[in-house]
Amino acid sequence: MKRLASLLLVAAAIAGAWAALAPKPGHPPLASLPAVPVPAGNPMSEDKLRLGRMLFFDPRLSGDASTSCASCHVPQLGWTHNDALARGYPGHRLWRNNPTVLNAAHYTRLMWDGTLDSLEVQARSAMQAPVEGNGKASMVEMRLRLIPEYVALFRQAFGTEWPQLDHAWQAIAAFERTLVSDPQQVPFDRHHAGDKAALSEAARRGLALFEGKAGCIRCHHGALASDEGFHALGVPRQPLYDAHPLVQIAVRWQNGQRDVPQAVYRDLDEDLGRYYRTREPADIGKFRTPTLRELKYTAPYMHNGAFATLREVVDFFDAGGGSVPNKSPLLKPLGLGEDEKNDLIAFLESLSMERPLIVDAPVLPPMQPLDGGELCEQPVQGRI
Questions:
Q1: What pLDDT does residue 25 have?
Q2: Of 221, 212, 216, which is closest to residue 27 (Cα–Cα)?
Q3: Which fold has domain 46-181?
């Protein structure tokens, strides 16, 4: 750890020098969400959305048919999970807090370290990663082909004779693009559209603090209330890193499978954040700025689930964040009073819908063994 700390101090000094020389651009104001961007290679359709909803809730895409997308992204829990750290595949425990799927369609980079660039890739990654879905591609694809209703739905949505696994990820991603905030239910969005009564007096005072004294707008701006940048904040260490053996294993496994240099890996039991993507020492411990939308429903907070309530989050930033060698220079003690903290929380809650977005789990179609003739008609690469 001493070697890592020295490396971080040098990197922080270099980064600070460059930051002092760099221009200081402004930032966009808060805004309402635009229409969801849809990639040209995966257009929306009713058939695809119906299929994607079913697959999102179907655990048969995982290795032992126990874990679906909805196992970690629970509609009734803000499309995330109320555990500090994600649960993962049976027998495992993950090392990061589970990001919500709500409004994920608007991100340009996904995951806390920004390693993925599309919902399609994220669906595939989650369902096939050994500690998450653990679904072997050939096995899962054959399972889909043993479900007559899926065979028909894939044919309608994609025009293929048999289900193809890449199409499954496209269908799930299409469904996830429907999971967005309804501006008519979000007090801030109604306020932004001109409804003077949409925000309470406390929330209006909180908005003034957000844009002024508290300085939240510097990182939380635009339609997502996120700069989509990466910052080291000094978030407290997650106690489960030390108390739960499966989490300890997961943290070290993560560093090993991401090809972290051995000199770093052997001394480290922390999450390196953005470093996994860039391999830049100055990015160690940096994580993506999360959206502030739907905060009412998506606790706990931060990349490691360290804070259970918004009050804890506000107290952390009011104190100027934590201690880390390459800490963001944007963090300074704020000196907020108790009433100001309450007002700020009132505004943060106004960025959430007044009613949570709930989608009921569909009835999943049963599997049915193929007869000999059907099996012979399938492409060779689809057999197991």
A1: 53
A2: 221
A3: Cytochrome Bc1 Complex; Chain D, domain 2 (1.10.760)
Q: Is the dihedral of CA 305, 27, 191, 202 positive or negative?
A: positive
* Cβ count within 10 A of residue 188: 25
C-alpha 340 chain-centroid distance? 29
Q: Six-digit token pair at 235?
A: 């978030």
Kindly give the interhelix angle for 338-349 and 201-211, rounded to the nearest 10 degrees: 100
Token duo for residue 275: 């470093």
The count of other CB atoms within 10 Å of the CB of residue 201 is 9
Mutual angle of helices 46-56 and 165-176, in 10-degree steps: 100
pLDDT in tens, 285-339: 999 999 999 999 999 999 999 999 999 999 999 999 999 989 999 999 999 999 9
- How many Å apart are CA 86 and CA 133, to the nearest integer? 12
Report d(CA 81, CA 94) in Å as an integer: 12
298, 290 Cβ separation under 8 angstroms: no
**pLDDT, tens digit (0-9, with 9 covering 90-100), for 111-150:** 999 999 999 999 999 999 999 999 999 999 999 999 999 9
Decide: 255 and 279 in contact? Cβ < 8 Å. Answer: no
> Cβ distance 260 to 248 under 8 Å?
no
How far, in Å, CA of 174 to CA of 16, rounded?
Answer: 41
The span from the CA of 90 to the CA of 63, in Å, is 10
- Amino acid letter at 186? V
So what's the pLDDT on residue 46?
98
| Alpha carbon separation from 101 to 73, 130, 171, 287 (Å, rounded) | 7, 21, 15, 17
Sorted by where each begins, the domain ranges of the chain are 46-181
Residue spans of the chain under pLDDT 70: 1-25, 263-266, 370-384
Q: How far apart are the first and last CA of the chain?
A: 46
The pLDDT value recorded for residue 373 is: 53
